[in-house]
Each structure stands twice: as C-alpha cells, then as structure tokens.
Specification:
20 helices, two-stranded parallel ribbon, mainly alpha, 6 strands, two-stranded antiparallel ribbon
C-alpha cells in the first residue's frame, strides 16, 4: 500500500522499517472507533462548508459501508497497511474516489489517534464496569447466604478473632466498589475530545470542535491543542485502576488457594473451575486463581511500561507513544479475562461451613474477649491481657481450649472469673458482641449488606 506521506521521499521505505513502524496488528481493533470519529469529522466539515455536502454524504456512506464489511468479514484488514487510520482512508478513497481524499482535511493522525484511543478506552471501561457489577452481585448473594457462618479472621495468617464468611466477603465488595469508582473517575476525566487539535497547533480551517465533541458524546473539546495530542494520562490512570483491581482479585485468589487446600478445606471449587495433575490423580488444582495472581504482575508491568514510555517525552507527539496501545490493551484484556472467569468460579464454589466453624473453635480467637470480660469486671486492660495470655499458654500445654478449661483454672488466674465467663467467650457471643459499625456482628453485617446493595444499584 502506498504511503500517504510518500511525496516527501525519493525512495520506498525499507521493508524492515515498514514492519517495525506498522501498528495495524494492534491498533486494528480500533476500526469501529476510527470510523465513528471520521463520520463525526466529515459531518462537521460538511456543516461548516469546508467540504461540500455531497462529498460529506459520500464519505459518511462510504465509511458506514466499510464498517459493515469489516464487521461481516467481507473486508479484511491489509496487514501491510501502516495503521488502521491509513487503511480506512485508503479503502474509502478506493471506494468513492477523490471525495475520500478530502476526509483528512483539518485533521492530523496525531489528533485522530488520540481520539480513537479515548473512544475505545471509554467503551472498554463501560464493559469492565459491567463485569465488575456482575461480580459484585455474585459476592453480595454469597454473603447473604453466610451471615451466620462463623470463621476465623486472620492477622499474619494466624487465627485472630471470629468473623463471619459474609463479613469477609464484604471486605472484597468494598474493595471492588472502590475499583469501580476509580474506573468511573478515569472515564469522566478522559471524556474530552482531542479532534481538531491537528498535529499540535490546531488548523487554519474554520472548524467547529464543539460539534465533533458533541457528536461523539464528549463533555467538551480538550482545551489546549498541544495537550490534546500528547496527553496519555488517561491510559496511565486506567492502567493504574486496572492494576489495583487486579491486586484485589489477586489477594482474593490467594485466599481461595489457601481455603481450598486440605490444610484449610474451607471451600471446594466446582470441577468446571479447577484442573488436575498429569501424574497425581488425587490433585484438584486452583489454576484459575494462580493465573490471576500471575496476570496481576503482567498488568502492573503494563502500567510500568506506560509510565516509563511517557516520562521523558517532550511535547507534543512522539512515535514512542505508539507503544501506549499494546500496553493498555493488554491490561484491559487481562482484567476482562480474569473477571469473566473469576465470577462463575465464585458463584459455583461450595462453602464448608463446618470446617470454618471448627477452625474458629480451635484457634483461641476468643482470647481478646476473655480479656474484655475481665475489663468489664474492673481490671485494667493490660492486666486482663496478661491473664488471658497466661490462660492460653496453659491451654496449649494441656491440650485444652478456653471453652474446655475448667472454671477452677480460671479462678486460679483471677478471682474476677465466674461461671458466666463461658458464655462471654462463646464464639457466638464474641462475634455478636462486636457491635461497632462495620464489624462482624449480625446487625452490622446486615447494615453492610444493605449499603453494598444500594451502592451497586447506584452504579
């Protein structure tokens, strides 16, 4: 395919350079956005009298035909084309003749590509947010079924205090809601139209930038033409939001991996969302969650690529910026793939309530409540803390738990203990005594559930 800029050059570009320079292999996915932007641009050119109404109509009809043929598969992209923008323009000119050559009036590839990237990322954010909503609804449903399922809460991966499975799941709901908020903020900040900025300094044609911005659903044109073509903040912001989303999925995945091990056996993955071993017939491996952990590093790497690519660039456009697409598209693709797989895996896993309850009973996770019991009897907290720790040590030496330790042993440690200590340190009492807002007691969890549902409905 002949280069649109070939008039300046006296010889053909070396084939190796052409392949190195080409971006259609990855920017070809923006064909619909490129055509949508060109239709808006042609509409504006016609309305402003920069090109004739007849030419504008021919261009728009031709672009719609190209879009239909690409989507049906009747038209295939030329792999030798420099990029999707040149491919569409060349195909348009081939179809409608000289009118097609007028499409690029008052436009540069610099503002064109900046537009296409914003358009496709806006579309991708909408899709990712829908996938997030699906997962959030799955998690809320799971939490609703386990408001009374007691399990140990952990610090340092050591059993710490009792919580419910619902409370634990809701922690991830709030994380993911923050992820959605970051995605929404990114979409809001990037929703400004660079079209009309030209290569860097605008154009001498009497264009109407507000019209193209409105036609394409943008809030307004980008205010500065230099910024319009050189800004990729929105790519970095999106990659950052996706990196945090992936970190949250990765942390959740790590817990799933632990929980489905024989050492925990808190949950069991459905057979459709686990794999086996080539040599060990007993194995049921949580490969999905392990891949999510691995892909998290990949998405963080995409963010690092974007930041490093941009950090030394002078204004305005530089060819380095072609590297933005592979990085941000990969981050998007990996996040979408993980969400699409993680959601049904969570929806179909089986929760082993008995094992969760047994683990909570054996972990001395009521030791703090034993100390609080003494505080309510008038002892200073630090004295109560030491007495409770002494009793735990005694239980460990004698193979007992705080629930099975005789009352006489309690009284030897402090006269403040009485028969009611056993009610005070029961798991149910320990759990439901935590009445502070955001805690694991049944009323607090029900408040969280209601708030989470409202937040999801408001998305």
């Amino acid at each position: 395919m002949a280069k649109m800029w070939a008039g300046r050059f006296s010889k053909e570009v070396d084939e190796t350079v052409n392949a190195f320079n080409s971006s259609i292999s990855f920017d070809g996915r923006m064909y619909a956005q490129d055509i949508r932007g060109s239709i808006a641009h042609a509409t504006m050119l016609g309305d402003c009298g920069i090109i004739s109404a007849t030419d504008a109509e021919a261009i728009i009809a031709g672009l719609k035909g190209i879009l239909a043929d690409l989507e049906s598969g009747e038209l295939l992209m030329d792999p030798t084309a420099e990029d999707i923008h040149m491919f569409v323009e060349a195909e348009l000119t081939k179809r409608i003749g000289n009118a097609g050559k007028r499409l690029h009036t008052a436009r540069s590839r610099n503002d064109q590509v900046a537009l296409d990237v914003r358009l496709i990322l806006r579309d991708e954010i909408a899709e990712i947010r829908q996938l997030l909503r699906n997962l959030l609804n799955t998690l809320v449903t799971l939490a609703e079924h386990h408001t009374m399922t007691i399990m140990p809460g952990y610090t340092h991966l050591q059993r710490a205090q009792p919580v419910t499975f619902a409370h634990h799941i809701l922690a991830y709901v709030w994380m993911l809601l923050r992820d959605d908020s970051r995605l929404a903020d990114t979409a809001k900040r990037m929703n400004y139209c660079p079209l009309g900025a030209g290569a860097l300094a605008g154009t001498t044609y009497p264009i109407n930038r507000k019209q193209t911005a409105e036609l394409l659903g943008f809030t307004a044109p980008v205010a500065n033409s230099l910024d319009a073509v050189s800004d990729r903040d929105f790519c970095v912001e999106l990659a950052n939001a996706l990196s945090l989303l992936m970190v949250h999925l990765s942390r959740f995945s790590e817990e799933i991996i632990l929980w489905c091990s024989w050492e925990f056996k808190f949950i069991e993955l459905d057979d459709a969302y686990a794999t086996g071993s080539s040599i060990m017939p007993q194995k049921k491996n949580p490969d999905i969650t392990e891949l999510i952990r691995g892909k998290t590093g990949r998405v963080i790497g995409d963010l690092t690529t974007l930041l490093t690519m941009l950090k030394g660039l002078p204004l305005a456009y530089n060819k380095d910026m072609q590297e933005d697409k592979e990085a941000i598209f990969d981050a998007i693709d990996q996040a979408k793939l993980c969400l699409k797989t993680f959601d049904p895996m969570i929806a179909t896993m089986r929760v082993n309530q008995e094992n969760m309850r047994a683990a909570a009973a054996k972990g001395f996770i009521n030791a703090t409540d034993c100390a609080d019991y003494l505080v309510k009897k008038g002892l200073p907290f630090r004295d109560a803390y030491k007495i409770s720790g002494t009793l735990v040590a005694k239980c460990i030496r004698e193979g007992l738990t705080l629930e099975t330790l005789p009352l006489e042993a309690y009284k030897e440690a402090s006269d403040a203990f009485d028969e009611d200590v056993f009610d005070a340190i029961s798991l149910e009492t320990c759990l439901n005594g935590r009445i502070s807002e955001g805690g694991p007691s049944a009323p607090a969890v029900m408040e969280q559930l209601a708030a989470a549902k409202n937040a999801i409905e408001a998305l």
